[in-house]
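User: Structure tokens for this complex, please. No commentary.
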Amino acid sequence: MEKDEKVKLSKVLLICAKGSIEDVYATLVMGNGAVMEGIETKLFFTFFGLDAITKKQMNKLHTATVGNPAMRMPGGLPFPTLLGALPFVEAGVSAMMKSQMEKLDIPGVEEFLELIVAGGGEIYGCKLAADMFGLKKEDLYDDVKGIITVGDLYAMCDGPGTQIIFT
Amino acid sequence: MATKTYAGVNIEVNDEGYMLDSLKWSKEVATEIAKEEGIELTDKHFEVLDYIRTKVANGDTLTIRGINKSGVVDAKTFYQLFPGAPLKKATKIAGVAKPESCI
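Assistant:
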């Protein structure tokens, strides 16, 4: 093999450890994109990221309006942190984000997972986090392939064209 | 840019093999491009190609979600019809530009 020969990306493992809309979507968009490119794709949800594959929570994700320096008012003015702490403000912001995404034809969480699975992508939950939150397989989205350990995850990472991406 | 001959017609394609003039497309041309991609076209394939050509002609953005909701084909079948990178392959065979969308 020549020294600088490039190895084509053939498999990605995406790890999602946070449960806000934007964190989960980073994983979903990249996962779906990989599936669409014909790349073998596995999604691994852990800690608060588990919300994205928990039946009760998956379609009700929120975004952080407090402590988020990139938050802005419509029009671009800075978004005061104190305002974000008021009741209903967070709900309004999250709803606005969702409607914005709908306009761009970005699917909801469940529909996104459906598309990823349809393309052959695989979805896993983290065993330790599931134990911590008291979640069982039946609490998770039906197409979750399994609740696995870190060791199981690494065992899936074989092959020279494999990348692990922590979103 | 290069010129290729599909079904006896000279067709200009870009570096990635996408047709530059969608109007030169025909079922015969599609069949030959598909062969290069290792796909034998069936009636179902043509239904999907038709849908894609209509969408693009209307100036709509193609997404996997849109295809899934099209009523022509669901996402799973779409992946089976055009294995590997379905949207890229299907658009190439449909004689339209490569979609510029992340979803």
